[in-house]
Every structure is written in structure tokens, then in C-alpha cells.
Write a structure and sequence with these properties.
Radius of gyration: 19 Å
Shape: globular
Oligomer: single chain
Largest sheet: 7 strands, antiparallel
Number of helices: 2
Strand content: over 45%
Number of strands: 16
Helix content: under 10%
Strand order of the largest sheet: 4-3-7-1-2-6-5
């Protein structure tokens, strides 16, 4: 992904530097930042290391953009040649295809092993977001689902994130589970997943995600190897 990895800060026109942990002014001014959104759209801007308030939650330095950024972005990379992959949202599908795919995603989520005593067993899944992309002709889909137990005193939530893949030659398309994560707890303690971007590395595919909870966010890079997906890198920011 290059020398620098940036994600949006709470205020407009600023970003949080996840990597490296101690960037220099010279590094941040050496090239433009390419800001990438989940759909694959990108914009280019210049940024400068913010010295006066350079720490976020006492951990990560920040940058300020020299230009206003009109596009919605989720990841910033140093340089102008980030190789992004376009992703199509489930919301853009025809109604019949959307209903069919939603049912397939719920089936895949139900196939993930869970604790026999879990209180979420048998509850329906709701699809929060889903995006499709292709790598070397292999269709892939990334999705986030939620199940809720609306107890009056202490409501609980279960959040599921997974990557599914399909054989491009199969018709109808049959999806298989390739990678998954799951978290459950209260609204404050359960991790909520966010898809940031899909990028092309030199020889692989990289999926950038975030896991948010009340007091911290974990940013993670997943890598698609020949044998499947694995977690390649992560950083935790606590507030």
C-alpha cells in the first residue's frame, strides 16, 4: 500500500495517520495523497503534518489537507497511483436480484459456527451493507450483517462480517464463504464493521476494514493469498 496510510478524522479537512507511527514533515510533503472511497472512486490532494494538535487520542498523528475534498473517502495513500478496485453496492441491483442475493448472504451467515448456547440462534439477519468486486475474473462479495435482541434493560447485538467468493463459470452463481469475523455484545461493546476499500497489491488483493466499538477502533488489512484470506496488519486506536 506504500509508505503512508491515512483514514478520516472527526473534523473535515483532516486525516489520521495509521502508518507510519512517527511520520516526518518531509515524508508527508513528498507527494500528494490519493483519497479512496469504498466504491473505488478517488481524489488527489496535498496534505501537511499537523504539528499543533498532532496526536489523536494520544496515539496517532494527523494531517491537514491543503485543498477542500468534495468526494467521500475512507483511505488515503501517498502518491497518485493507488490501484483501486471498483465495487458495486447491493443497493444498485434490480429488486429481484437484490432479494435473491440478500437471502444468499443470510444463508452464508447462518453457516458460520456459533456457540450452541448463543441467544442469537434462530434470529433473522439484516444486511447492513454489501459490495461486489472481481479479482482476475473471480467474483467476490463483502458484506456486514446484524442481528439484534431488543431486551428492554440491556439490548444485545451480533455483527457478522464476511467475504464470499463464487466460480465465475457457475450459473446460477453459487457463493462460498471465504473469510469471516463475528462480534456480539451490547451496542457499546460489540464491534461494528466498516469496509474501507479494496486495493490491488503487486501480486495480491488487499481489503481494508475497520472494527469500531465504544472506546476504540481497529484498522485491519486483509490479504488474499493463493490459499485464501488472512489478516496481514492491524492497528488499534483507543479513545
Amino acid at each position: 500500500l506504500g509508505q503512508v496510510l491515512v483514514v478520516p478524522a472527526d473534523s473535515d479537512g483532516t486525516g489520521v495517520i495509521l502508518f507510519p507511527e512517527a511520520p516526518t514533515v518531509r515524508l508527508m510533503s513528498s507527494a500528494a495523497l490519493t483519497l479512496v472511497g469504498p466504491s473505488g472512486d478517488s481524489a488527489v490532494t496535498r496534505a501537511a503534518l499537523a504539528v499543533a494538535d498532532s496526536q489523536v487520542c494520544g496515539e496517532a498523528p494527523t494531517v491537514r489537507f491543503n485543498d477542500s475534498v468534495s468526494t467521500s473517502w475512507s483511505v488515503g495513500l501517498l502518491g497518485k497511483h493507488a490501484r483501486t478496485l471498483k465495487m458495486d453496492s447491493l443497493s444498485g441491483l434490480p429488486a429481484r436480484d437484490s432479494i435473491r442475493l440478500t437471502a444468499e448472504l443470510a444463508r452464508l451467515a447462518s453457516s458460520i459456527p456459533m456457540d450452541p448456547g448463543s441467544r442469537f440462534k434462530g434470529l433473522p439477519f439484516a444486511v447492513v451493507a454489501a459490495r461486489q468486486f472481481e479479482v482476475n475474473g473471480r467474483p467476490s462479495i463483502v458484506t456486514q450483517l446484524v442481528r439484534r435482541l431488543p431486551q428492554e434493560a440491556a439490548p444485545l447485538e451480533e455483527h457478522t462480517f464476511f467475504v464470499a467468493e463464487a466460480d465465475s463459470a457457475s450459473s446460477p452463481r453459487r457463493w462460498t464463504l471465504a473469510y469471516h469475523q463475528r462480534s456480539e455484545g451490547s451496542e457499546e461493546t460489540a464491534e461494528q464493521y466498516e469496509l474501507l476499500a479494496v486495493m490491488r497489491g503487486r501480486t495480491n488483493t488487499l481489503l481494508l476494514i475497520a472494527r469500531h466499538r465504544d472506546t476504540q477502533s481497529t484498522y485491519e488489512v486483509l490479504e488474499r493469498e493463493a490459499t485464501g484470506w488472512r489478516s496481514r496488519w492491524h492497528r488499534v486506536l483507543s479513545c
